[in-house]
Amino acid sequence: MYKIINMGLREVKMELEKLDKDKLINLIVDLYKNNKSAKEFFDFYVQPNDLELFKKYRDKVFEAFYPKRGFGYKLKDGKQAISD
Known about the structure:
Layout (H helix, E strand, L loop, with lengths): L8 H10 L2 H14 L1 H11 L3 H16 L9 H9 L1
Helix pairs in contact: 2-3, 4-5
């Protein structure tokens, strides 16, 4: 049985420092492929476009409170867009 270990930033940093460049690149590529928020982060890191990112999340917040269909609002979706 596997035990989940919660590591802090210090431990993660120490483990990453042990990796050589190729392994680190492969780890980042896997993260990019498998995690949507990591993909957005790296896309923004490589090509920062503040206006496009602002518009994307502004539209998500607007849609949460003023949906195109129906009358209800989704407070959870609006809060999530703001925190993202």
